[in-house]
Design goal:
The chain is of the alpha/beta class. The protein has one domain: Peptidyl-tRNA hydrolase (Rossmann fold). It is built from six helices and seven strands, in the order E-H-E-E-E-H-E-E-H-E-H-H-H. The chain is globular.
Length: 190
Amino acid sequence: MPAWLVVGLGNPGPEYSSTRHNVGVMAVEALAERWGGRLKSDRYTRCEIFDARWQGRRVILARGRSYMNESGGPVKALSSHFNVPVERTVIVHDELDIPFGALRVKQGGGDGGHNGLRSIRKVLGTGDTIRIRVGIGRPPGRQDPADYVLKAFSASQRDDLAALIERADDAIECVIEDGVAVAQNTFNAD
């Protein structure tokens, strides 16, 4: 049976590590820790991965080392190297159009203006990946969304961030164990 690939989107470097745009990376790193491991450099894919066994399944947890708008290259390298079909590829990313604290599971669809998803669609030639869309909410007032996603979570959001990341990880596990439809029924209700 083919492996699963779970990629957290974000930007490299310490200056971006706690920004809203990196919530996908935060979720994948937390899931690796939950499963007793951590992401490590992989020379073949030039990504950071944790090659895990979970519930009898092989799952590659990963993050690229490229910037968000170049996410397609690392996802393609990972899926090619580990021979993972698109229907077993899970992309975890920030979503402006979902309120902070909520998330949605989705298979396929457009990129919604998300540069990381646009890059993945372009490089893979399809947008049919499974997505865990982690809500970060819209920027306040007239703040530019591009600036908003590159800022750290607010103090009140940081209080609830661990619970949101844990919920995203629960959704990833549900997709792998029970399928997209069950995960949508479970996590898209709020």
